[in-house]
Design a protein that fits this description.
β1 and β2 form a beta hairpin. The chain is built from 2 helices and 6 strands. With 107 residues, it is an alpha+beta fold. The chain has a 4-stranded mixed β-sheet. The longest helix has 17 residues.
Length: 107
């Protein structure tokens, strides 16, 4: 029986990273898709688009989905045996919301 592998995906502001480890936590593959470099068709800078409003910064969700497809293709090209993957974990650190509010205080 093939030894199990475990896949971690980290969706950050500037890239999607995949780390594939074995049962002893030894890194088998370490891959990344940089949004600006690998998916230039989205026109991002540091993984984000500015505007249309003043101070608005967004990232296209389609870009994240395409990054997942691309990283899985790179894993396949690297010879990863997907049937050995027993668990997948994900983390996302891309969601930040800053609200500006004007509040009148009464005492």
């Amino acid at each position: 029986m093939s030894k199990p592998l475990f896949l971690g995906l980290d969706l950050s502001t500037q890239q999607l990273k995949a780390l594939l480890i074995d049962e002893k936590a030894i890194v088998v593959h370490d891959l990344a898709v940089g949004y600006d470099r690998d998916l230039p068709q989205y026109g991002t800078t540091n993984g984000a688009m500015h505007g249309p409003g003043d101070g608005q910064v967004t990232s296209p969700v389609a870009m994240w989905i395409e990054a997942i497809d691309l990283i899985l293709q790179r894993m396949k090209d690297a010879g990863v045996d997907f049937s050995r993957i027993r668990a997948i974990s994900g983390a996302g650190q891309v969601l930040t919301l800053i609200l500006r509010a004007r509040v009148k205080m009464r005492f």
